[in-house]
Amino acid sequence: MKNNGDGGGYFLMLLCNLYYKINYLRPHYLLLMFLSLLFAVYLDASVNVKATVDKNKVTIGDKIRYTIVIEHDAGIQVQFPELGGNLGEFEIKDYKIIGPKTKLYFSPLWFKKKVVTEYRYIITTFTTGEFKIPTSTITYSGDNGENKEIQSGEITVFVESVKPTDRDRDDIRDIKPPVGIPRGWFFYFCLIFIPLLLIGSGLGYLLYRQKKEVSFFGEDKKKPLPPHELAYERLEKLEAMGLIEQGKIKEYYIILSEIVRRYLEDRYKIPVLDRTTNELYRYLRQDTDMDRKHCSLLKEFLEECDLVKFAKYVPEEEIIKDDTSTARKIIDLTKPSI
Predict the structure, then answer these.
(1) How far apart are CA 30 and CA 190, in angstroms?
(2) Which long-range contacts (CB under 8 A, 24 or more apart) does 160-166 make?
(3) 74-132: per-residue pLDDT in tens?
(4) Does 100 sit behind a cis peptide bond, omega within 30 degrees of 0 on the bond before it?
(5) Is residue 21 a part of any domain in this protein?
(6) Are residues 145 and 69 part of one domain?
(7) Is residue 168 situated within a structural domain?
(8) Tell me, what DSSP letter sits at residue 244?
(9) Structural domain of residue 96, as residue ranges?
(10) Is there a contact between 80 and 71 (Cβ–Cβ < 8 Å)?
């Protein structure tokens, strides 16, 4: 019991001694803590780098936003590396740089200015698996010009394939049938009305041309005149119509070439109206007694008429008169000799 009592008194004495020393040395401990805090603020990191992604688990082909934020003191020079070939399996689709901006930060003793620059990258990959975005090394230098480095740290991203649905199959599916187009009354109306309209327009044009031909050539067919005299009479009738003065040059040449063609048909008793210029030229040279020089003159005349009728060629008035004289000359050269 005595040993126990003496031991308890000794332990109590030690506690009293420790309490005295702590109370006596408390101001010194406070000063030491203050100096440590001040030193910690002074040694506060001058450059901070933070790298993040908006999602760590994506499907193949998805876009990921990869962001690097750099904070540093105003007097620090920072050199940011090019990331084009430093992203492993990822490729950069787009990027944007925000800043540099100046922000105020509160430290234990005062406010500090920091320069903040944010680098945003849109990256993607088309390979499945677990990939790491490598660390980016940022080089910086302070007032003393000494170069230092800081790293952003690597980030792990999981890339999955497109998840199959219940409708997906392992085998190749057959081609889907064509999608039908809804057919209402308007479809059938156009299907019937438009062809009828086109047919009616064609018939109307043919009747109009036939009527014009009848009005010009119909009456004089009944006259018992030789082909050349009838052709002369028609040429005079054409000139008296005043088509040139009215600006109807194409209509004038249509009738002019028709007069010559009808004359040749009556003169040589051959079908002329349905033949082209080249066909008529070859036929007259081979199967008639028409002189070759006269055939060449006829071909040049009909080709001139074709230019006006089909190629929208508008000759001058003197050329029109010359072509009319050529028509008379062809009739003069080919009419039967008395």
Answers:
(1) 99
(2) 160/57, 160/58, 160/59, 160/60, 160/128, 161/59, 161/60, 161/128, 162/59, 162/60, 163/59
(3) 777 777 767 666 677 788 878 788 877 777 665 555 556 778 888 888 888 888 888 88
(4) yes
(5) no
(6) yes
(7) no
(8) T
(9) 47-160
(10) no
> Which of 10-14, 40-44, 196-200 has the least mean pLDDT?
40-44
Residue after which a domain boundary falls, among 126, 144, 160: 160
The residue from 145, 160, 175 where one domain ends is: 160
Average pLDDT over residues 284-289: 85
Q: Using CA atoms in the order 10, 16, 17, 21, what is the torsion angle rounded to 10 degrees?
A: 160
- Which pTM does this prediction carry? 0.41
Structure tokens that stand for 30 in this block: 């406070």
Q: Looking at the structure, do residues 51 and 155 belong to the same domain, yes or no?
A: yes
| Beta strand extents in 125-255 (DSSP E only) | 129-133, 137-141, 147-151, 155-160
- Flag whether 169 is in a domain: no
- For residue 94, the SS3 value is strand
Confirm whether 32 is domain-assigned. no
Q: Is 159 helix (H, G, I), strand (E, B) or coil?
A: strand
Say if CB 302 and CB 260 are below 8 A apart.
yes
Q: State mean pLDDT over 185-214.
A: 72
Q: What is the Cα–Cα distance from 144 to 114, expressed in whole angstroms?
A: 19
266 vs 271: CA distance, rounded Å: 9
**CB 80 within 8 Å of CB 99:** no
What's the rounded mean pLDDT across residues 43-68?
A: 78
Total number of domains in the chain: 2
Between CA 305 and CA 314 the distance in angstroms is 10
Q: In this model, does residue 210 exceed pLDDT 60?
A: no
Contact 93, 123 (CB under 8 A): yes
- Identify the H or E element spanning 50: strand 47-53
Residue 79: name the closest of 154, 155, 153, 142 by CA. 142
Tokens linked to 278: 């080249």
- Calculate mean pLDDT across residues 44-64: 79
Strand partners, 67: 52, 120
